[in-house]
Amino acid sequence: MNPVIEINGLSFGYEFGDSVLKDIHLAIFPGEMVALVGQNGAGKTTLVKHLIGLLRPPVGKVKVGGLDVANSRISTLARQVGYVFQNPDHQIFHDTVQAEVAFGLHNLNLPREEIGQRVKAALSDVGLAHLAMANPQRLSRGQRQRVALASVLAMRTPVLVLDEPTTGQDYQERQQIMELVKQLNKAGHTIIFITHDMSLVAHYASRVIVLCQGRIVLDGATREVFQQPQKLAESLLVPPQINILANQLNEQLNVQGPVILTVQEMQTYLQQLGEGKENGTGG
Ligand SMILES: Nc1ncnc2c1ncn2[C@@H]1O[C@H](COP(=O)(O)OP(=O)(O)OP(=O)(O)O)[C@@H](O)[C@H]1O
């Protein structure tokens, strides 16, 4: 299978600034659900801006859906990758939610009917169907974030890049957004999401890429990455509480237990430990 995103030797620095990305090599395959993590200023947003042509690689090569970003038009790349900005106000310009979500679709020259259908479906997906005629500027930050998400969903691109999609959302909205993202991934979209919430990473990502000062320092299946708490700590990343608790329990019991990522996994593990004890085989 060919990678949908291929980065070879990408280095980048802003004008008058230090180097922000250093020799990035990366291949992401169709259907992956990748979490891109790292402390503030690690270079995550700078990296993904290279996928949509907002930044062009001065050194190295970036390919998306087989297109070389260095010489592809932003409008062409926009058919491959949808990007939800970290700050929704950087991508919301229209007077109504409906017009906002329809904007990108007009650029695709789609028939009016299809535009209407896609807008409706995207707004319903993010739970904003009832606010189609509202002015986005009057909505809450969390709602504006979801308008931005709907605008990108409506484009139906094979790759979705979500830069901190759950910022400003309450607990329930956060779960809803991530469940929606999971469904999109199941339906075949390749997902890259940036977040500082390591419990979302543990729960939803199939692969984790850790950026530290512009370099990739960890890249692997989620469970493998959480198996290296020392390396995560070096990047100032704190695993979810449940993972830490399980590690401490294993240490106390002096057993090599599994890597626990979610509360549900912990529940199952505790049950197994309990049953082992009853049978006299537990630690
Ligand atoms: N437009 C810009 N001009 C100059 N420097 C910039 C610009 N955008 C970002 N930087 C700098 O580049 C570095 C990486 O920033 P970037 O936004 O990519 O990090 P990040 O990992 O996404 O951080 P955060 O988690 O805070 O969003 C930071 O030092 C930042 O100050």
TrEMBL record:
Record bears the keyword NAD: no
Entry-linked Gene3D superfamilies: P-loop containing nucleotide triphosphate hydrolases
Cell location: Cell membrane
Pfam families, per the entry: ABC_tran
Keywords, in A-Z order: ATP-binding, Cell membrane, Membrane, Nucleotide-binding, Translocase, Transport
Gene Ontology cellular component annotations, sorted alphabetically: ATP-binding cassette (ABC) transporter complex
Main location: membrane
Membrane topology type: Peripheral membrane protein
Gene Ontology molecular function, alphabetical: ATP binding; ATP hydrolysis activity; ATPase-coupled transmembrane transporter activity
Transmembrane regions: none
Annotated ranges, domain ABC transporter: 5-238
Record keyword Signal present: no
PROSITE patterns cross-referenced by the UniProt entry: ABC_TRANSPORTER_2 (PS50893)
PANTHER family in alphabetical order: ABC TRANSPORTER ATP-BINDING PROTEIN MA_1418-RELATED, HEAVY METAL TRANSPORTER
Similarity field: Belongs to the ABC transporter superfamily.
Protein name (Swiss-Prot/TrEMBL): Energy-coupling factor ABC transporter ATP-binding protein
Species annotation: Desulforamulus ferrireducens
Lineage: Bacteria, Bacillati, Bacillota, Clostridia, Eubacteriales
